[in-house]
């Protein structure tokens, strides 16, 4: 066999947000994907099973009529997530994973984990019930505009790679050779996902040279227009 045909693919990293943004986006995903891992970094984040079930219902309500799309719900891990919440999530049959956001690493991550040591009991429960951990990390950062945060990712990578062997860990949207090597050399409980469009361009390419000057000029004009208007 030389080829594999994906008749109905799944999306393993989907941001639907909420309210009007949710209604505008979910139909496009449902037209292509059978299932999707739903990112929980809303404002406020989805930190409990009850919130996840409510969010799932809002997603289902926003789907086009007749859609069979299945949202796979995820809890947002915090320093204070109790082990009992993980047990409830597993028993629900609806929540499929827990997402680790290092605090301050990305959009709506202020409530994320500051130190994985705070989560020892919670992680032990994840191992017990078989709940995987999806990690916001997994790649050394060569983005010149993102370097101040790269240490957060490395700290997350090192800590999660050293997690209990029974914890299933998925590093999300890896994009570099170093990240692939990191996962290849990690224990068997560690895997990764690749987000294809992240491989096309990064901000180093976007914000350097003539293209960058054009974008900067457009942003300046837009900002000036907003200032004049308000």
Protein topology:
Layout: E1 11-14, H1 19-32, E2 35-38, H2 49-62, E3 70-76, H3 83-92, E4 95-100, H4 120-129, E5 133-135, H5 147-161, E6 169-171, H6 177-184, E7 190-192, H7 203-206, H8 210-229
Parallel strand pairs: 1-2, 2-3, 3-4, 4-5, 5-6, 6-7
Give a concise summary.
The chain is 41% helix and 13% strand. The chain has 230 residues and is an alpha/beta fold. It has two domains: 189 residues, TIM Barrel, CATH 3.20.20; 30 residues.
Order of helices and strands: EHEHEHEHEHEHEHH
Q: How large a portion of the residues is in β-strands, by DSSP E?
A: 5-15%
> What is the CATH H-level superfamily of the largest domain?
Metal-dependent hydrolases
CATH level-1 class of the largest domain? Alpha Beta
What is the C-alpha radius of gyration, as a whole number of Å?
A: 19 Å
Q: Helical element count?
A: 8
**Shape annotation:** globular
Helical proportion? 40-55%
Q: How would a textbook summarize the main sheet?
A: 7 strands, parallel
- Mean pLDDT score: 82
